[in-house]
Amino acid sequence: MNLTIRQITEATGGRLVYMPAGREQTEQSFMDSAVDSVVLDSRKVTPGGVFIATEGERVDGHSFIPQVYANGAALVITQKTPDRVPGQWGSYLLVEDTLQALKDVAECYRKSLDIPVIGITGSVGKTSTKEFVAGVLSEKYNVLKTQGNYNNEIGVPLTLLQIRPEHQVAVVEMGISDFGEMHRLSKMARPDVALITNIGQCHLENLKTRDGILKAKTEIFDFMAEKGMICLNGEDDKLKTVTSAGEKEIRFFGSNNPEGCAVYATEVVSKGLWGSEMVIYNAAGQHYEAQVSLPGAHMVLNAVAAACVAEYLGLRPEEIQAGLKKVAAVGGRNHLIRTDRYTLIDDCYNANPVSMKAGIDLLCMADTYKVAILGDMFELGEKEDALHAEVGAYAMDKQVERLICVGNHSRHMYEAALKEQEKTLCNPDGVSDAESGRIAYFETREDLLEALKAQPERFLPMNCTVLIKASHGMHFEDVVELLK
């Protein structure tokens, strides 16, 4: 890492307590020494690295300070003065707030880097778009991308601190739930390119309206490179209102309606659950054929967004073609799994009304019996009951053949689905939808798992396609594992 202990000390404003590691080391040489890593996890500390001790809900990182000294940590950043124990003592930086220190260090490190950073945000599709962008850029560059769900005020700085000299581009996912968060994330990441996927109905508990979401998401512009590029979904009614941002260039992308879009897809041919083919037009007026192996119209839009970024960073059409073809699904996000009994659409990582409907649309591409196992969506605010009901009605309107609703909020989904089917309440055998299991409700995930273990054939016919989707807190990965 191109980061010294002096820079860390100045960035955090902390008080350094220097304890020499050897007789020949002076405080001056210690301050000017480069660090190998900056981590929060004591198990990841390497000799010459920095450990930031933070207080979690279950574990206090300060209790691991003796261990990290023993493992060769050069410096500990702490908000508590460590106990002086012989053989378990070393240099430390005392700060008021170690989580703020993490952000300060990440911002300092980012300023020292001379590589483009791509910041990706939006209500839906951040992670899949990140995978598309990183996958395509990898055809030309050595790319670092956000891993897992490291997209918040802890994950973003940890991602930035993973950038190494060999990396040529960083693709950073940036997620928020309240005003001001994106401002702080942008201050750390300082993106050269900002990509916003859409403005949907999520985190309404804090952001209240889609206009509020737009305001919060566009805080990503606050610390962008002065002449950077903004890449926006030209099919989103809210994003289309963003017409200027200082000297930054704005490029819109789209597929269904290419008007006003610099990069867009036409002649889209769906291959069902196995992807799409399309023709992509770029800002230079060129066009080329492209394929994606991931299903759904939203994946076409992700592909075009990636093409928009890639073109700006100098990739040729043949490199974009190759990159798009290689992009694979991330576990928990439209990940297709074939078993001896079922085809599973594992989309259990997160959920909101927009992504739920997109998941149902994807399920309906299957040419088999279609089952949707849907769970609670969190952080929807005062309209949560109505939004769950809307999803239940939508599933019935799209003629999903079996709907299974799980969770306290999803009772409204279940009741709306039943109401939607009142006009055809009875199946040919005279059994109501609720009694037959065609529309079923379980209060908890555990209740569902027990039912599937006891009577799988009642709910899931052989060779059916099953969508499994809910907010991450519902832990529907357990459902996926059972069905696998």
Structure characterization notes:
There is one protein chain. By secondary structure, this protein is an alpha/beta fold. It folds into 3 domains: 5-97, 3-Layer(aba) Sandwich (Udp-n-acetylmuramoylalanyl-d-glutamate--2,6- Diaminopimelate Ligase, Chain: A, domain 1), CATH 3.40.1390; 113-326, UDP-N-acetylmuramoyl-L-alanine:D-glutamate ligase (3-Layer(aba) Sandwich); 335-483, Protein-Tyrosine Phosphatase, Chain A. It is 33% helix and 19% strand. Strands 7-8-6-9-10-11-12-13-14 form a 9-stranded mixed β-sheet. Strands 15-16-20-17-18-19 form a 6-stranded mixed β-sheet, sandwiched between helices. Strand 17, helix 13 and strand 18 (402-406) form a beta-alpha-beta unit.
**Uncertain spans:** 426-435
Residues in β-strands, percent? 15-25%
Helix content: 25-40%
Strand order of the largest sheet: 7-8-6-9-10-11-12-13-14
Q: How does the helix and strand content classify structurally?
A: alpha/beta
Mean pLDDT: 91
At the first level of CATH, the class of the largest domain is Alpha Beta
> What's the end-to-end separation, in Å?
42 Å
Seen as an oligomer or otherwise, the chain set is: single chain
Second rung of CATH, namely the architecture of the largest domain: 3-Layer(aba) Sandwich
Total number of beta strands? 20
**What's the domain count?**
3
* CATH structural fold name of the largest domain: UDP-N-acetylmuramoyl-L-alanine:D-glutamate ligase
